[in-house]
Automatic annotation (TrEMBL):
Heterotetramer of 2 PreA and 2 PreT subunits. Involved in pyrimidine base degradation. Catalyzes physiologically the reduction of uracil to 5,6-dihydrouracil (DHU) by using NADH as a specific cosubstrate. It also catalyzes the reverse reaction and the reduction of thymine to 5,6-dihydrothymine (DHT). It comes from Tritonibacter multivorans. InterPro entries: Aldolase_TIM, Dihydroorotate_DH_cat. PANTHER family: DIHYDROPYRIMIDINE DEHYDROGENASE [NADP(+)] (PTHR43073:SF2). The gene is preA_1. One of its GO terms (cellular component) is cytoplasm. GO terms for molecular function: dihydropyrimidine dehydrogenase (NAD+) activity; NADP binding; uracil binding. This is dihydrouracil dehydrogenase (NAD(+)).
C-alpha cells in the first residue's frame, strides 16, 4: 500500500490531497479529470437550493507580484509570482437535480476516490433546516462518501447563511442536528476564518457530531484600486463588494487557525486549507495537526490543466513520498501535529533577561 494512503474521518484516501469546493470541482467533467490526474478526493462546489445568480463580470482574479516592482496586482507584468486569488463567486448554479446523476456517475467511475458533497442552506426557519436535510439525503443517496457543511461562504447578503452564521454556536448545533438526523456519513464542517470564535464554533460543531472541521475558506477582503484608472481591479459598473482572498497570501493565517484548533481539540480531525501550492505548505498544515489537505487557488492557476492542477497533484504525491522515504516515515501520521506544543504564549519565549512577566508587573 502507498505510504500516502490515509484514513481521515473513517474514509480511506489513496492520498491526502483533495480539491477544495470551488471551480475545480464545479462539474462532472472537471471532477473526472481531477481523479484521472490523481487527486485522492474532491469536495464538490457547494450545492444549494436557493436562487444563485453571479455578478455580471469576472468572478475570480489572480493577483501577482514581482521582484522588480513588488506591488500586488492582477495586471499582466513580466516575471511575476502568485500572491493570491480574489473571488466573489457564489455557490454552484447547477441545480441539485443535475448534480445527482453526475455524482452517481463520478462515484461509479472512481469508487476508490472520496467524494465529499459540500452543501449549504439557510438557518432562519424550520423550512431552511428541512433544506439541509433534503440536500444531505439526496447527495448521500447517490453515493457521496461524506458531507461538508458550508458555514463559511463569505458572499451572502442573507444573514442566515454562510459566514454570517459561523459565530453562532446554537445555529451550528441546529444544522448538525438536522443533518445527522437523516444521514450516517462523516460530516465535515467548513468554518470561516473571519469568526472571532473559531475554536468555540469548532467545539460546538464537534460536540454536535461533526467528524472534522475544514478551514479556511477565503478571507473577506477588498480588491485593489488602480491609481491611474481609479477602477477597482475587479468591479461591475464601478462598484465592488467584499469578496474572498485565497492562495499563498492566506497560508500563515490559515496555519494559525489550524494550530488553534489542534491545540484545543488534539484528538479531532482537521482538513487544512489555505495557500497550498506544493509539498512545503502541505507539510506545514500537517505539523500543525491537519490530517487531510485541500487545494483550490494553485490548481485553478495551473495553466493547461483545465483548472484542476494535473501537474500539481503529481508533484504533491512525488514530493511527499520522497520526504517520507528520506526521513524513514511510514506515513504522514508519524509527524502530524509535531508543531502543536512548540507554539506557545509570548511570555514562554526566552528573553535576553529574566525580567519579562507577560506584560504584567512582577509581584514583589
Ligand atoms: C473562485 C472560488 C470559488 C469558491 N467557491 C467555494 C464554494 O462554493 N464553497 C466553499 O466552501 N468554498 C469555496 N471557495 C473557497 C475554497 O474552497 C478554499 O477554501 C479557499 O480558496 C482557500 O484555499 P486556497 O488558498 O487553496 O485557494 C472558493 C474559492 C474560490 C477561489
Amino acid at each position: 500500500m502507498s505510504k500516502l494512503a490515509t484514513n481521515f474521518t473513517g474514509l480511506k484516501f489513496v492520498n491526502p490531497f483533495i480539491l477544495a469546493s470551488a471551480p475545480p470541482t464545479e462539474s462532472k467533467r472537471k471532477i473526472l479529470k481531477a481523479f484521472e490526474a490523481g487527486w485522492g478526493g474532491v469536495v464538490t462546489k457547494t450545492i444549494g437550493l436557493h436562487p444563485v445568480e453571479n455578478v455580471a463580470g469576472p468572478k475570480t482574479i489572480y493577483q501577482r507580484t514581482s521582484e522588480a516592482k513588488p506591488y500586488v496586482s492582477r495586471m499582466k507584468r513580466p516575471d511575476t509570482v502568485s500572491h493570491s486569488s480574489w473571488n466573489w463567486e457564489l455557490i454552484s448554479d447547477q441545480p441539485l437535480e443535475q448534480w445527482l446523476p453526475d455524482l452517481e456517475e463520478i462515484k461509479a467511475t472512481y469508487p476508490d476516490r472520496m467524494v465529499i458533497a459540500s452543501i449549504m442552506a439557510g438557518t432562519g426557519s424550520e423550512e431552511e433546516l428541512e433544506n439541509w436535510k433534503k440536500l444531505a439525503t439526496a447527495v448521500v443517496g447517490v453515493g457521496c462518501d461524506a458531507l461538508e457543511l458550508n458555514l463559511s461562504c463569505p458572499h451572502m447578503d442573507r444573514k442566515d447563511m454562510g459566514a454570517h452564521v459561523a459565530n453562532d454556536e446554537a445555529i451550528i448545533r441546529s444544522v448538525l442536528e438536522a443533518v445527522t438526523s437523516v444521514v450516517d456519513v462523516p460530516i465535515w464542517v467548513k468554518l470561516t476564518p473571519s469568526a472571532s470564535t473559531i475554536v468555540d464554533a469548532a467545539g460546538a460543531a464537534y460536540d454536535a457530531g461533526a467528524a472534522a472541521i475544514s478551514t479556511c475558506n477565503t478571507f473577506p477582503s477588498l480588491p485593489l484600486m488602480d491609481p491611474e484608472t481609479m477602477k477597482f481591479e475587479v468591479e461591475v459598473d464601478g462598484l465592488v463588494t467584499p469578496g474572498g482572498q485565497g492562495g499563498l497570501a492566506i497560508l500563515h493565517q490559515a496555519l494559525k487557525r489550524v494550530n488553534d484548533l489542534h491545540k484545543a481539540y488534539p484528538d479531532k480531525a482537521i482538513s487544512g486549507i489555505g495557500g497550498i501550492r506544493g509539498f512545503r505548505e502541505a507539510f506545514n498544515f500537517i505539523v500543525h495537526g491537519a490530517g487531510n489537505l485541500q487545494v483550490c487557488t494553485a490548481a485553478m492557476e495551473e495553466k493547461g490543466s483545465g483548472g484542476v492542477g494535473v501537474k500539481l497533484i503529481q508533484e504533491l504525491c512525488e514530493d511527499m513520498t520522497d520526504y517520507l522515504d528520506r526521513h524513514g516515515y511510514a506515513s504522514l501520521e508519524e509527524f502530524r501535529g509535531i508543531a502543536r506544543e512548540r507554539v506557545v504564549q509570548h511570555a514562554q519565549i526566552r528573553r535576553k533577561s529574566e525580567d519579562y512577566n507577560g506584560g504584567f508587573a512582577k509581584s514583589a
